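note to self — DONT lose this again. spent like an hour looking for the file last time. sequence + predicted structure for the chain T wanted, 219 res
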Amino acid sequence: MPRARSRRRARRRCRWWRRARRRGALFRGSSSRPCTGRGCARGRARWPPPRRRAGRSTAPRRRLRRGQPASLPSRSSYRSRRPVCYGRRVAYVHPVVGLVAIALAAYAASLGVRSRSARAGADRARRRHAALGPWLYTLFLLTWLGGLATVEWLTPDVEDAAETHFAVGSAIMACLTAAALLSRRIRRDRRARTIHPLLGATALLLCGLQIFLGLQLLP
């Protein structure tokens, strides 16, 4: 008996592939694999498909190849490149907190003046002044550190102009630190009782100068 010829089973291909095969319009990079049912991308897809690199979109380059003008990047892409703390609104946090601290310092100074009088509410004003002192010092310290951070990260263009503002702020912190240390000796030392209000008054006067210098640095 003659041997039967082994015929390979014809691979199924999509309709477009067969039509393009007849017309001879297949490209060099066309797929030679049979259609899997999802389509063979009209014979132009390579197998295996090339990996797409993560990163910037290639849409502008493709448009340039086709003769179309490339679109500019959106605003969202520019915003994503900005630092976390960037923004004009954040730059106003330091002056607002500074004004609150100066107002609180003026109130503490008024309590200190009333505590030295011979009126009936002197003891009450003295207790309030002593209780408000640590909170006031902490608020001034945070304001001083916030000013450093604002100039360093938000408004570095005013770094040269802010040298005097920083020097006055450091002098205020020095006066408040000395006054806080002397407040522990007020009850047993006359000198501390005399120097403490002078340091507080000096710090309050420097705060007025600090406001004038800070207004010139606002964005």
